[in-house]
Amino acid sequence: MADITEVSENFQLGKKLLCEVIFRKQKDKKPKRSTWKFNLDLTHPVEDGIFDSGNFEQFLREKVKVNGKTGNLGNVVHIERFKNKITVVSEKQFSKRYLKYLTKKYLKKNNLRDWLRVVASDKETYELRYFQISPDEDESESED
């Protein structure tokens, strides 16, 4: 039979190891983000004159939902436009995917979805690009 002191020592050792594991896990956790910042680069379509960045900014202000309600931006979500770039800064969790969804919705509404696509150029930026149409495809269609 195990001695009571031996069992007690093993219990104390196990307790100490458990505390170390918990402490390490708490130490490894990253702090939660305080702000979310995303950019939309509209340079090419705006320069070509087929896209109105001011109208798009207004569309975002009207359509972005905060706490399930549109037009409820308050001090939580800030939408800023500087030349051909739109920046969305949020103090609450905000999805980059949601920004892409709204951009595609705007393109569809203005019949630009057939010409432009939304591409992620880096972790926090989307860019509007034209679809690449190769000249070979056009020639084969005209021959038929």
Automatic annotation (TrEMBL):
Superkingdom to which the source organism belongs: Eukaryota
Q: Which Gene3D superfamilies match?
A: 3.30.1360.210
Q: Name one Pfam family in it.
A: Ribosomal_L22e
What GO molecular function annotations does the UniProt record carry, in alphabetical order?
RNA binding; structural constituent of ribosome
Q: Which GO terms describe its biological process?
A: cytoplasmic translation
Keyword Ribonucleoprotein recorded: yes
Which family, according to the similarity comment? Belongs to the eukaryotic ribosomal protein eL22 family.
Q: What is this protein called?
A: Ribosomal protein L22 like 1
For this protein's source organism, the top of the classification is: Eukaryota, Metazoa, Chordata, Craniata, Vertebrata
- Primary gene name: RPL22L1
